[in-house]
Amino acid sequence: MRKYAPVSFPDVRLEGDFWRERLDTVLARTIPSQHKKLGEYGILDSLKLPQPPPPLRFPRHANGFTVQVFWDSDVGKWIEAASYALAHRRDADIEAKIEAIVDDFEKAQAPDGYLNCWYLGREPEKRFTNLRDNHEFYNAGHLLEGAIAYFQATGRRRWLSIMERYLDHIYTVFGSEAGKKHGYDGHEEIELALIKLYHLTKDSKHLDFATYLINERGHQPPHFFDAEREEREEKGIDTQRYVFPNYEYSQSHKPVREQDKVVGHAVRAMYLYTAMADLAAELGDEALKHACEVLWKDVMDTKMYVTAGLGPSAHNEGFTWDYDLPNETAYAETCASVALIFWAQRMLHLDLDGQYADILELALFNGALSGLSRDGTHYFYANPLESDGRDTRWDWHTCPCCTMNVSRLVASVGGYFLSAAEDGIAFHLYGGISTSVGVAGTEVGVREISNYPWSGDIRIELSPETPKAFDVKLRIPGWAKSFSVKVNGEAVSAQPANGYFTLNRIWSKGDVVELDLPMVAERLYANPSVKMDIGRVSLRRGPFVYCLEGADNPGGPVQRLKLPRAAELKAQTRSDLFGGLPVVTISADAVAIDQGGWEKTLYRTDPPGQEKATLTALPYYLWANRGTHSMVVWVPEA
Amino acid sequence: MRKYAPVSFPDVRLEGDFWRERLDTVLARTIPSQHKKLGEYGILDSLKLPQPPPPLRFPRHANGFTVQVFWDSDVGKWIEAASYALAHRRDADIEAKIEAIVDDFEKAQAPDGYLNCWYLGREPEKRFTNLRDNHEFYNAGHLLEGAIAYFQATGRRRWLSIMERYLDHIYTVFGSEAGKKHGYDGHEEIELALIKLYHLTKDSKHLDFATYLINERGHQPPHFFDAEREEREEKGIDTQRYVFPNYEYSQSHKPVREQDKVVGHAVRAMYLYTAMADLAAELGDEALKHACEVLWKDVMDTKMYVTAGLGPSAHNEGFTWDYDLPNETAYAETCASVALIFWAQRMLHLDLDGQYADILELALFNGALSGLSRDGTHYFYANPLESDGRDTRWDWHTCPCCTMNVSRLVASVGGYFLSAAEDGIAFHLYGGISTSVGVAGTEVGVREISNYPWSGDIRIELSPETPKAFDVKLRIPGWAKSFSVKVNGEAVSAQPANGYFTLNRIWSKGDVVELDLPMVAERLYANPSVKMDIGRVSLRRGPFVYCLEGADNPGGPVQRLKLPRAAELKAQTRSDLFGGLPVVTISADAVAIDQGGWEKTLYRTDPPGQEKATLTALPYYLWANRGTHSMVVWVPEA
Fold first, then answer.
1. pLDDT tens, B117-131?
2. What is the pLDDT of residues A88-100, one digit of tens each?
3. Cβ contact, residue pair B529, A60, below 8 Å
4. Which of these is catalytic: A117, A292, A335, A401?
5. CA dihedral defined by B261, B262, B265, B271, rounded to 10 degrees?
6. Which residues form the Non-reducing end beta-L-arabinofuranosidase-like GH127 catalytic domain (chains A, B) (predicted)?
7. Which one of A234, A438, A545, B613 is at 20 to 30 Å from B603 when CA atoms are compared?
8. Are B602 and A556 an interchain contact pair (Cβ–Cβ within 8 Å)?
C-alpha cells in the first residue's frame, strides 16, 4: 500500500541551524544526563537481579503499585535515544553504558526467555497475570525498539538476540491457538515495535504477532481483561482495581476496525493508531486504513489543541469529549504529541497527503518540542496552553516517559524530512539537510538549504549521478497562504495536489529548485464549540504557534493583555532573548487591563481601567525557559 | 466575649415567600427522600451490628478504604436535619425512623461506650488507631449534633445519652493526661459539636475536651499523626498512605493560634475555624479570636469565589494558593459554603460586624443554596462558576456529605435572622419572620415583613409587652449603595456603624420601623490577580450573584456572549421560568460571537463575526434546574 518510504535519519545529515542546535543539545546534554538520572533514581539498579528490590524512591501510587512497573521501558527508551546518538557518531562511553545494561538484562532473563525486571525481581510467579495494568508488553516493546536501534547503530546483536528470545517466549504463551492466552497489553506499544522488528529481520512471525494483537484487541465477550482478572481470582492473586475503570481507557472497548472515536489514554491511543496504520500498509488492509482515517478525522476535527497537544485531562491522561480543550489544565502530554508524530508519519506513507505532514510538523515544532528545555535537561510532562506563572520544567519526573520520548525524537528527527519512491523524492520538512537517495535507478545527492522554520526561503540542490526523470514533490504547508517555485531560476507554475507540488522532469547534476513559502504572522481562531477559546485568538507564523510569556511582557500577568482585531502583527528576529539564538517574535499594539488600585480588595463594583500596551509573542515551544512566568496561547480579543 | 446571641430557629417562624418555599421543599421532599437514599445505598443497613459488613455498593476508593468510613456522620446529619423538621412540626413517622436508628446504635454500642459502626462492624481491634484518615471523631461529632437536635426537638434523651456514654469513653482514651493518647481527628467537626453540647448541658467537661482538641492540634514534634502511625507499625497494623500527604490538609501543620493562612481541605478548615471562634467567645481567648480574624481576612482577601464558594481544587477538596479561583473546575464544595455560614455566624457574635453577616448572606444565597435543586431531591457537591453544559445535579453522591448539610441548613435557616442581647435586637437577614424576644426585661413581639431577597422594602413591627428602651440594630448590607430608615413613618438619619444602623428609643407596642434597601443590578469586577476573571464581569443584585445559563440564552453556548461595559442592566421579575416562582432576572444588550460557518473546522484564520444580542442572567443558585445547559458567572466584557 505504501509507495513512498521515509529516508531514515542516519542517512539524513542535519545542517540547518535550528535542528543542529536541538540535536547537539540532545546529544551533548540530554542523553548523558538522562543516563545519570536513571542511575540516581534507582532505575538502573532495578535491573540488577537477583537482589532485594531497591528501596522505593517514590511514594506508592494510589493504585497500589509503584512506578517501577514501567522502568524497563524507560531503560529501553534511553537505549533507543542513545543508539540514535551512536548512529550520528560512535561513542565508546555510551556503548559501554549500554553494554552494562545489556549485561544486566542478560543475567536477569529467565531460562525460558521471560524478561521483565519488575516481575522477576519481585513476584516472578505472577508474570503475565495482569497485562491490563502492569505493562509487560509495553516494556517489552520499548526494550525491543532500543534493541533494534542499538543493532542498527552498532551492528551488535546481543541485545537484540535477548529480546528475540523473550519474544519467542511470549509467542509460546500468547496467541490465537487453543491453550494460549488470548490477550494483549493494556498499554499499546509492542505492536509498532514488532513491525519495526519485522522490517529489520523480515521474519513474518513478528508481523503475525503484531497482527494478532491488533486483531484481538477489544474482542468480547469474554473481554481479555475480564478473563485475566477471573484467572487471578481463581489463583488467589490480589485483584487490584482497574487503574482506570473502563475499556475505552486502553482502546479495548471494541475491535479496532470498529473504533471511530478517539478515546482514553492519549499515548496509548497514538501508539495503537501508529501500529494500525503500519499494519494497514503491510497487509494492504483497507478496513484498517479506513479506521485510521476515521480516527484521524475525529481527533483533528474535535480533539486537538492548536499546539497539536492531545488529551485534555490529567484524570485519564487522555481524551474526554469533543471540543473539550481547556487551556490552563491541559494535560497534553509530551509523549502524546511525540506519538502523534509517529502516527502522522505512518498516515503520510499510506497516502502522500499534506494534511498528515502538516500535523507532523505542527506537533514537532509545538506540542513535542515544548517538552524539552533550552538547556536540554529539563522537561514538561504536561504542556498547558495557559499558566498563572507557577509551571516550571522538571529535571526528572516520577514517570519519566516523556523525557526519553523527546530525546529519541530529536535524535532521529532527520528521518522525518523526506521520503523516496522508485520514481520520486518527497520533501516533507525543510530546515537544511543533505542526503543521498536512490531514485529511478540512480543515486541522487540532495541538499536542502534554508533557515526554516524561521524563513520559508528554501533552496534544494539535486545531483543525480546520471540524468533521470523522476518526481520531486515539495510539500506546500497548509499554513502557507502563497508559494512560488523556481527550477534553475525559472518560475514554475502549477497547483499543488494534496499538499504537494510535483515537479517531474529529467534532473541533472546541479539542478536547483527554489521554493518560497512566505511566512506571515497571522491570527488563528478556534471553532466556537471550543468554549474556552471563544473571543480569543492565537498567533501563528510558519510552523510555530505563539504564546505570550511574562518574561517578554512585564508589568503584570499576560492574562491582562487583549489584542485588538485590527492591530498589525509585526514579526521580528531577535537574538537577545535566548543567548544569541535567533528567534522570530510577533509583536502588536494591545490593550492592558489596569492592575493597580486594588490593594487587598478581592471584588469591587468599580471597573478597572484599560491602557494602551504592546504585546510580544514567542514560539510556544520556548516558554518556561527563563524562570516562571504567566503564559497564554489564546489571547482575548479587545 | 459575646454580647448578642442568635435567636434560635424554632423560635423564628419563617413567613416570607422565599424561605417558606425552600423550607417547605426541604421538609416535604428533601428530608424524606434522604432517608430513602440512606436506605437504598446500604447506609442504614451498615448500622445493624453485629452482622457481616454489607456489600460494598461503591468501588473501593483509590486510597484503599470505602466511603463507609464516613457513613455514621451521614446518619448523624440526617437525624439533625430531620430533628429540625420535627422542631417545626412533630411527625410520628420521622420520629419512628429516628428511633429505629437509635435502636441500631444502642445495640451497636460497645460495653465501654465506643460507638463507630464502621470499626465495630469490620475491625473493632483497630479502633482509634488512625484518626488521621478514618474520621472517628468526625463521625462522633455529627452523631452528637444529631443527638442534640433530636433532644431539643422532642425532649427524648436516649440518643443523647448514648452519645454522652461514647464521649465519656473518648475522654478516658484521649486527653492531656499521661497515659492517654494526645490526639485529635484529621477531620475537624467534633469540636464545634462539643461546644453545642456544653451550651445544652453546661457540663464543662465537654468544653474542656473541645478546648483540649483545639489546643493540641498541630503541636509537634512529635506530630500526633506520626506518633499514631508509628504505633500502628509497632502493632503490625497496615499503615495506609496518608490520604493527602501533608499536615496542611488537616490544618494540623502548626498550632491553631499560629495559623495565618487558610490551607487544606476546605470543609475541615471551616469546621475548625467555627470551633475556634466559638471557643474564643467561651474562653474570652483573645489570641484565638485574633487567629480567627487573621484567617478570615486571608480567605476574604484572596481565596473566596464571588459566590462564596471555597476551595478551588478537587485534588485536596480545598485551598491552593492566593487568587487561584478557576471557574470551570471550581470545586467550591457545597459543604464548604455551608460551613462558612457557621463560621461567619460565630464571628458575627464575637463582634457584631456587618462584614461577617455580609458573607453569611452571600454564602447562604449563593454557594450553599446552589447545592440544592428546585425539586429538593438533587444536589451539587461541587459548584463550578462556569459549565460547558455537562454538569448535572445528582440524586445522591458517593460521599453524600453535602446533601444533608444543605438540608440541615435550610431546615434551621430561621436561626440566622436575628440576635438578641440584654439591651437590644439585631437584624441580620430579612425575608419575613415573626418571633418573640426577651429584651430589656420585657418580651418583644417581632415581625419582619418583606419580599427580601427580591426586594429591599422591609417593614418591622415591634410589640414589647411594656414600653422599654433598647437598641434595634438593622444590618445595612455591604451591597447596599444607599438606604433609608423610618420609625413610625418619620425618617431617621444617621450613619451605620460596622454595617449596622442602630435605633435607640423607648419602643412601644405597634411601633413600626421601615427600612428601604434599594436593590440595583450592578457589575462586579475581580482583582486582576485572579487571572481567570481578567476582562470579565459578574452581575449582582441584592444578595444574589447572577449567572448566564443556556436555558435563558438560546442560540449557542453562553460563553459566546459579551457584555459591553456601557450596556444598561435591567432587572425584571419573571414568574414564567420556574413554574410560577417569581425570580428577578437581569437582562442587557450584549454582543454574541457568531457560531456559524465552521462545519468541522477546528481552527481557521478567518475571524468569526459578532452580532447584537441580548443576555439574560439568573441568580446563580437557580442554575441547572432546567436540564443541562452551558453557564457562566464571569462574562467577558465587550
1. 989 988 899 999 999
2. 999 999 999 999 9
3. no
4. A401
5. 130
6. 11-414
7. B613
8. no
